Amino acid sequence: MYIAVVALLTFVLPLGSAFVEHAPPGAAPFMGLIGKWFVFWAAGVRLALAGARQLFQPEFTARQIFKIEGSDALPLVREIGAANLALGAVGAASLWRPDFIPPIALVGTIFYGIAGFRHALETGRTLNETVAMGSDLFVFIMLAAYAVHALLW
What was the pLDDT predicted at 42? Predict the structure, then answer.
């Protein structure tokens, strides 16, 4: 289930939404749509869902992503969940407040870049960690490309 949700929120829905909105003649520039939909789906919905899960089921993140057994880390995972939920809520709100897109894209670039590269340094990754790494780095690239484009244009 984790892999399917990550694939939908990281690849299918953001790219699909951008292509659908770009299809009509005279549509918005594609890079702007990349920013809009990656901020909404990947930095918004995905992080909000992850944050909610980390708040209410911190064991999954502790054990499946960070390989930490026991309950000592659960308060920290809940704190991470609160931050993810907050960032995700603002990312999701960007659909109604387009002025949120550039700053959340920048924050998402930093967040996903650090998370992805941190996963890349881990040896002996599980399948879930590998999925997290790959999807984090992909979102990092997409948001970074949009952020650079938005800053230059």
Answer: 98
* CA max distance for the chain: 56
Distance CA 132, CA 61 (A): 11
Contact 143, 42 (CB under 8 A): yes
Record the pTM. 0.92
Sequence spans of domains, the chain:
2-152
What is the tens place of the pLDDT at every residue in 74-122? 999 999 999 999 999 999 999 999 999 999 999 999 999 999 999 999 8
Calculate ∠ Cα 95-100-103, nearest 5°: 135
* String of DSSP letters for 79-119: HHHHHHHHHHHHHHHTTT-GGGHHHHHHHHHHHHHHHHHHH
Region 126-153: what's the mean pLDDT? 94
Q: How far apart are CA 130 and CA 100, in angstroms?
A: 30
Q: Which helix (H) or strand (E) holds 140?
A: helix 127-152
